[in-house]
Predict the 3D structure of the following.
Amino acid sequence: MTALVEPVASVSEEDRLRADLYNFLGLFLSAAPDEMLLGQTSALSGDESELGQAVNALAKLARLTKPAGAEREFNALFIGLGRGELLPYASYYLTGFLNEKPLALLRQDMAAQGLSRAPNAYEPEDNIASLMEMMGALIVGRFGTPADLGQQKTFFNRHIGPWAGHFFADLEGAKSSVLYAAAGTLGRVFMEIEAEGFRLSAE
């Protein structure tokens, strides 16, 4: 994706932290983590909450994982021979097929928000990594004015909420998952928190 406008408004610390977690998940799911990302992940620490415990579990596994092992795991999960163990696309999870109506709806909403696919991106835009990145970018206004809570809720409920939790649960249980099982737990718990927060919002 490419940003059309630089940030123009301030964002609360809570929203920055939410955006950081979305961006982290997007980065972790877009490619196998290299030595730098594994090192950054291993240094994370969480509190006693369910989310904090998921962060701690992922950090512990990152400390035990070498880049080559992470790459083998990523390839088995998402690339494979012909296809990986999981197909991380909204269209697939919602319709059973790739490049279906959920992708078309996302492209419409991306255009309305001023989002565009990066020239070097070949994956369909409805893949989980891109959606995590988009949500993080909307929260902090990387594409212009930060999205208000109502706009965030609409994007989440249309493109992330209906399927991302199922994907992360599948990632937790995938036979090829070790490091990514912990990432799946983190994503699933975060999606539950976000869904509940939006449900309780007055927007």
Remarks:
- The radius of gyration is 16 Å.
- The chain is about 65% helix and 0% strand.
- The domain at 13-200 is CATH 1.10.3480.10 (TorD-like).
- Residues 27 and 129 are 7 Å apart (CA to CA).
